[in-house]
Amino acid sequence: MAGCVALIAAAGSGTRLGGPLPGGDQPPGTAPPKQYRTLAGRPLLAHCATAFLQSGGVDAVAAVIGADDRAFYDEAVGHLPLREPVIGGPTRQDSVRRGLESLSDAGYDTVLIHDGARPLVPRDVIGRTLAALATHDGAVPAIAVSDSLKRGADNTIVEAVDRAGLYRAQTPQGFHFAAILAAHRQAASGGRTDFTDDAAVAAAAGLRIALVEGSEDNLKITTAGDLARAERMLAQGGEVRTGQGLDVHAFGEPGSGPVRLGGIDIAFDRGLAGHSDADAALHAATDAILGALAEGDIGSHFPPTESAWKDADSATFLSHAAALLKGRGGVLVNLDLTIICEAPKIAPHRAAMRARIAEILATTVERVSVKATTTEGLGALGRGDGIAAQAVATIRLGGGGS
After folding, report:
1. Is there a single domain that holds both residue 194 and residue 305?
2. How far, in Å, CA of 400 to CA of 44, rounded?
3. 402 found inside a domain
4. With DSSP H G I counted as helix, E B as strand and the rest as coil, what are the percentages for the chain, rounded to 5?
5. How does residue 24 score in pLDDT terms, banded at 50, 70 and 90?
6. In terms of CB atoms within 10 Å, which end of the chain has fewer, N or C?
7. Range of the structural domain that residue 316 is part of
């Protein structure tokens, strides 16, 4: 078949960035590959893949991943319609060649090879790269060097370097598929493993490569500072929405405990009564996200008249709302949850609730707030008849690379 495939190189260890995985644990002293770190609540790899899926010029997306990274990959992009990933090799050059080989019988005319650490690739950069393939063997987005260049040694300037004609190369780098595959095979058969990018592989094979205009927004995430800059960039784009949720459940009979709240069980003599597990906190959180998406309420998705949801774990409802948010290319900016009751005491369980809610939403605990208050003895809640919960969810739809 004719068409274009995007191949994302994401097999590197990328540990210089450091930090925890989204909503998950890791062994002490280790750090996940940076392509699985979160940016605005979504893994870098998910931003990359979504950018190509929504570009309008790409027919399929595939990734090359590390041998030990399949679980990370599935959590990051398992909800996206990507081709089966390929296990990479010891070098980036090796990994890309393996990715190309895996696609060699698929019939694609062109390929865009992209770095999984560049999550904010703009659509117009993708478009310019593809357009240049009409007249060239390959195309590379690049930015002309504007700073003065110096060659140094021992922290001392040795000489000035002429910047005329110098460019900073970016990805995606586009090629006619058969030509770049042949170039990679030639490099491998010749024992060359020192090429820094695919344009260098192509040039060594005699291919004619065009330079097209890149973008300063198409930054490569290498350090924590790069990630912070990308967070600021995303905060300036996209549509921000807010939704509210409110739920109230009465207590059941004495001896019906424990009480399920915020996704955890709390020792208490009376549980909450309801068709599902009656977790008022997760119900409010679910409605808040659905409200921000204008997707109705929890009852329209999980009618209490249906036996399938009797005694159901409310984590199912919140996971569904999170999946709808992902499916719209959105991210959770913040969830603020307030629990209203006289008893049980919420404070000792706040940390566990935040961790569980973050796990369900596949986000970081820093984006989840849990608070508690009472009605000072007033009304049904003040009498201890039940528990109420209010939630406010802030989401972002679209914007830089999402």
Report:
1. no
2. 12
3. no
4. 30, 25, 40
5. very low
6. N
7. 239-397
